[in-house]
Amino acid sequence: MVEHGKPRKAAVAAWVGSALEYYDFFIYGTAAALVFGKIFFPSSDPAAGTLLALATFGVGYVARPIGAFILGHVGDRFGRKKVLVFTVLLMGVSTFLVGCLPTYEQVGVLAPVLLVILRLLQGLSAAGEQAGANSMSLEHAPEHRRSYYTSWTLSGTQAGQILATAVFLPVAAMPTAALQSWGWRMPFWASALVVVAAFVIRRKLDETPVFEREVAGQEQAKLPVAVLFRDHWADVLRVVFAAVIAAVSTIFTVYALSYAVNSAGLARTPMLWVGVLANIVALGAIPLWAMLADRVGRKPVFIGGSLGCALLIFAYLGAISAGNYVLVFVVGILMFGVVYSATNAVWPAFYGEMFPARVRLSGMAIGTQIGFAIAGFTPSIAAAIAGDKSANWVGVAIFTAGLCLVNVIAVLTGRDNYRVPTADLGRKDLDGGRVPMTSAGGATA
């Protein structure tokens, strides 16, 4: 039985922690699109500098699979809470140090080397963040509302993106000299406040009842990863391919911003506002999609969102190419704020419900982070596809839509476990994932 008040407390802790964590993670992406190509790489080839800056954004995703193995083991072996406290500390410290880095003009090649090292630490932190927060929320949630409560983690991620983009609005409006010398550093230094706030919140969070029962019954796997790949390897692969839907986010927040400002000649400030408004809309859309998924299942909502993104990416990049600000705002908000939110609302529950508690954090972390690693490099792949010709946006749209279809296939092959009691999740002997529940969401006797 779920204790009264615990689900909301866990969901709020996941929301706040994810918002603070992803503020740090995404200010890097914004800075990479607007500034880093000019200050951390040689100025002799601006196009190459932009490409390299976007590649450093993707480097953070390289560390994610490695961090997933390490932090997944810690979370399944020693508890979800330890992972959540560690990740927010590591993210905050590494982000603050990015703001202290010297530029290429000051120290030469050492500047991008240090930048890459700190980006790797950010990626290591992010590897355990969402899987830990999702596991915590799912295991505290009422059985008939697991999608709703786990969706708070992704709502927090959207809030972090809002903060990350909004903080750059006044910074981007600064004169170029001030922006490139000290203005870009301010959002990174602000992460010191992030560390303190998130640490206090997560230190007060209770461990999940599921994990505490495992400890009491000595049912923990000594090497969760070994159990995971022995018994649940197919679900890990399914999550990997489903998680490439995150390419929609990286294309929207990083590549499209860089393309709009550096190639299509659109102003920085309006393009930043597109991201802010889309994420504000997402804050309202995500819980609504999640509540629908608790009623009709995860797969219909997830697949509908993926197919919608595959179509709308053509309209969004086309609007940027045409320089039509009205269409950019309308399509951008519709695609990222409404349609993409359907996938974000559902995947925390859909992935988590594939695995039993003893390997849940490892399964979610490893599967998602490998998929996210692929998505993390899509801005640099898209930049290579487009080259220096703005008309090549069609190729980028086809590439992104193709990744959306990969997600659809992966989700279609999975089992929808939304009617399975939490204690039975991950069992392979269930009939199509359908176990009777009471109207309150608990299993019948």
Write the layout of secondary structure elements.
Elements: H1 6-39, H2 46-78, H3 80-98, H4 104-107, H5 110-140, H6 146-166, H7 168-172, H8 176-183, H9 185-189, H10 191-203, H11 209-217, H12 224-231, H13 233-242, H14 247-263, H15 268-296, H16 298-322, H17 325-352, H18 360-376, H19 378-386, H20 393-412
Helix pairs in contact: 1-2, 1-3, 1-5, 1-6, 1-10, 1-14, 2-3, 2-5, 2-18, 2-19, 3-5, 3-10, 5-6, 5-18, 6-15, 6-17, 13-18, 13-20, 14-15, 14-16, 14-18, 14-19, 15-16, 15-17, 16-17, 16-20, 19-20
Task: List its traits.
445 residues, mainly alpha
Entry summary:
The protein is an all-alpha fold.
Description:
There is one protein chain. The chain is mostly helical. Helix content is 78%, strand content 0%. It contains 20 helices and no strands. It has helices spanning 6-39, 46-78, 80-98, 104-107, 110-140, 146-166, 168-172, 176-183, 185-189, 191-203, 209-217, 224-231, 233-242, 247-263, 268-296, 298-322, 325-352, 360-376, 378-386, 393-412. It is globular. The two termini are 13 Å apart. Residues 431-445 have low confidence and may be disordered.
Shape: globular
The number of distinct helices, counting runs of at least 4 residues, comes to 20
> Radius of gyration over alpha carbons?
21 Å
H and E string: HHHHHHHHHHHHHHHHHHHH
Q: How far from one another are the termini?
A: 13 Å
Model regions low in confidence, pLDDT < 50 over at least 5 residues: 431-445
Summarize the main sheet: none
Percentage of β-strand residues: under 5%
Quickly give the structural class: mainly alpha
The percentage helix is over 70%
